[in-house]
Design the sequence.
């Protein structure tokens, strides 16, 4: 009987230790994005370990693939990761290249961006330029949502192709199907289209 109590206590302790081990190893482990980067950590973290709330990065390159096989490469001169929201990287002087599974590519440049390393969704803003085949699209704000296969450009949007120039408030495109919606904020305003001579 005494041996049975010892075995029961041993098994209960073993169960508790294994449970805590799994909890700390699996449950609390944060996912890590695929990162190829040449980093120089600067700022408060380098001066005082107890006083920082973000990491500053230089020469950033993220490469990832979504579930549909599209490859996403984003480069930036500088970036910042806030420790309270570590999956979002604030970027400066940004160039992104999206290699779609159909072998076409989209290039995006902007002064600033916010990149989510979990979803690969990116918001580009200020002096945004998109080039796709022989088309060029400029504006001030772009939501590029790979998770929803949706791209929305807004604020002073100018679309230029080899035949036309178009001005609108918003251009929305499904990345996969290329279905596009073009519209203005106000119903009484019209989209401006001019043919190239």
Sequence:
């Amino acid at each position: 009987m005494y041996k049975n109590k010892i075995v029961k206590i041993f098994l209960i302790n073993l169960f508790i230790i294994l449970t805590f081990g799994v909890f700390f190893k699996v449950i609390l482990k944060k996912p890590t994005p695929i990162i190829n980067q040449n980093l120089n950590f600067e700022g408060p973290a380098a001066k005082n370990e107890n006083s920082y709330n973000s990491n500053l990065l230089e020469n950033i390159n993220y490469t990832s693939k979504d579930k549909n096989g599209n490859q996403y490469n984003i480069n930036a001169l500088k970036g910042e990761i806030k420790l309270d929201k570590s999956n979002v990287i604030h970027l400066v002087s940004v160039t992104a290249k999206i290699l779609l599974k159909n072998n076409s590519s989209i290039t995006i440049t902007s002064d600033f961006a916010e990149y989510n390393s979990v979803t690969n969704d990116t918001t580009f803003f200020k002096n945004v330029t998109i080039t796709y085949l022989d088309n060029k699209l400029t504006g001030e704000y772009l939501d590029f949502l790979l998770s929803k296969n949706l791209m929305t450009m807004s604020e002073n949007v100018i679309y230029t192709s080899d035949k036309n120039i178009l001005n609108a408030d918003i251009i929305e495109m499904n990345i996969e199907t290329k279905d596009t919606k073009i519209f203005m904020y106000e119903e009484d305003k019209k989209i401006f289209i001019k043919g190239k001579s």
